[in-house]
């Protein structure tokens, strides 16, 4: 949402709208605090957060273990390049390799999912000596010029013309085994895919497609690289979505939830892939910095100790069961895996996402023009899930409880019945 702020008295919103690049559309609210699956705006209004920083806050906002680890590390050491070994980096690498699929025991550290995809692209080229790639229609791989080549949606690529060189990328229909088999050749360095397409509408891959992708790439000598940036770290009910399919890729791109809210990224790969990159062939200033490493250690340990993969599985099943019980002719399908859930509507989803936020205090995401995407922290309670579903049902039916309450208070005031100390709240 963009436009004039609803609360023009907010100096924070005014400043952000004045100085921001305007590349990202802004909501008309200023968030100032979060805990678990709840966030608060500057006025103190609470929201159930089913955005979680686009899938970052899997362990919840301000998880106490992550907060403590970051505070302790800031007091000790904040910056150290990867050329100089660091105790917290070594600790993080040990924790990370301890949860990745067997054989993925070499790690390139960076700061984001897009950076992880850029690394994957370079490691695939040096690892195979090939230069072509296969990516998925409706797939999303990031917004840098290199990662954009793998991103299907033309609107992300077209403004940059020939600078986005995807002439060496073949796009196939997600789930179509015959198209994939035809596209992978002796020139293919890697197949890039998400086990669950997020931006593409929250679409889980079939077991057959994932297993055939592994078989085809092995037959052709190409790498299989899974984008686990959004699906990783317990989001889908397993530590990594690949585990649902019994598939071990040659590499995985990781980011988002891995740092508990601190910027972080990684490309994990086999030793063979890592060893083929020439020394100095890739790098980065802030990758593997001690603060991110401390946050990552605390995050992974919290996920294991609190059984967050199982929590996501159980809560995701409950969430989808409740959503499927909603009686609305506007719903076409509810789908997802774990707590990565999409509700496809028969009409544009944006008005309902706006109503959820504005009228109900629920934050949700769009995934394609028709899909409402729910990505709550794994710490969300069943009571909060019930509240989200009830709110969603109300907005689908056109009920606005805040407007009804305002009308009720106005009627009471007109009749001289307004309770002492109760004021009519206006937007």
Automatic annotation (TrEMBL):
Entry's localization field: Cytoplasm
Residue sites binding pyridoxal 5'-phosphate per the record: 113-114, 140, 227-230, 285
Cofactor(s) annotated in UniProt: pyridoxal 5'-phosphate
A Pfam family recorded for this sequence: Aminotran_3
Transmembrane parts of this sequence: none
Cofactor note: Binds 1 pyridoxal phosphate per subunit.
Binding residues for substrate: 143
First-level EC class: transferase
Record-listed N6-(pyridoxal phosphate)lysine modification sites: 256
Pathway info: Amino-acid biosynthesis; L-lysine biosynthesis via AAA pathway; L-lysine from L-alpha-aminoadipate (Thermus route): step 4/5
Keyword tags: Amino-acid biosynthesis, Aminotransferase, Cytoplasm, Lysine biosynthesis, Pyridoxal phosphate, Transferase
Reaction equations catalysed: [amino-group carrier protein]-C-terminal-gamma-(L-lysyl)-L-glutamate + 2-oxoglutarate = [amino-group carrier protein]-C-terminal-N-(1-carboxy-5-oxopentan-1-yl)-L-glutamine + L-glutamate
The EC number(s) this enzyme carries: 2.6.1.118
Keyword hit for Amino-acid biosynthesis: yes
Quaternary context: Homodimer.
Family: Belongs to the class-III pyridoxal-phosphate-dependent aminotransferase family. LysJ subfamily.
Function, as annotated: Catalyzes the transfer of the amino group of L-glutamate to [LysW]-aminoadipate 6-semialdehyde, generating [LysW]-gamma-L-lysine.
The protein, known as: [LysW]-aminoadipate semialdehyde transaminase
Organism: Deinococcus caeni
